[in-house]
Automatic annotation (TrEMBL), chains A, B:
GO molecular function: monooxygenase activity
Pfam families: ABM
Keywords: Monooxygenase, Oxidoreductase
Name listed for the protein in its UniProt record: Antibiotic biosynthesis monooxygenase
Record InterPro entries: ABM_dom (IPR007138), Dimeric_a/b-barrel (IPR011008), Jasmonate_Hydroxylase-like (IPR052936)
Domain of life: Bacteria
Domain ABM: 9-80
Length: 107, 107
């Protein structure tokens, strides 16, 4: 469940969101986007949790790989639907991971 | 619930964890650490969710502010208790936020 990322540096996209009421196709889209993201060039992994607030961090080899995923057509449509329907509020933060540590090393 | 952070750059500490069974003092410590972190110099905000996996991102003015929080005595004790008791697995990633966007601006 914790992503197995390489030695830094690499890119993290921190997506924080507050959902609107009702599913409105969200669960199916979320599953599809997770599958699609995992097939993109430069994808390193994803970590996600929601309890009220949703916090999803996706990891990429570099900023360009993350930016390319943002431009994937099916994902562009999902982003638009997110803004119009699924999210009351959200924020995207693009960051460069410089250090990583845990019980099993840098991961 | 979404942290109100300033224009980048600033530092994000991404803490991902898998809890062990039972509370063992975790809830009280978690509340205390959130209160204590919010009083540290350079603290900008925190976003957190847990459903199986826990994903907590804390934001700091710079890496040194984040490093100083890591060294606060009461937090050092909590980290030790986390390693020995509360967490089956965890990872800490220190990152520099370079871009931020959402419906209300950079935040």
């Amino acid at each position: 469940m914790i992503a197995h990322t390489p030695e830094p540096p690499y890119t993290a996209v921190i997506f924080t969101s507050v959902r609107s009421d009702g599913d409105n196709g969200y669960a199916a889209m979320s599953k599809r986007m997770n599958e699609l993201a995992a097939r993109q060039p430069g994808y390193l992994g994803m970590e996600s949790a929601r309890d009220g607030l949703g916090v999803t961090v996706s990891y990429w080899t570099d900023d360009e790989a993350a930016a390319a995923w943002k431009r994937v057509a099916e994902h562009v449509i999902a982003q638009e639907r997110g803004r119009s329907t699924w999210y009351v509020d959200y924020q995207v933060r693009v960051a460069t991971v410089t250090r990583s540590y845990g019980p099993t090393g840098p991961r």
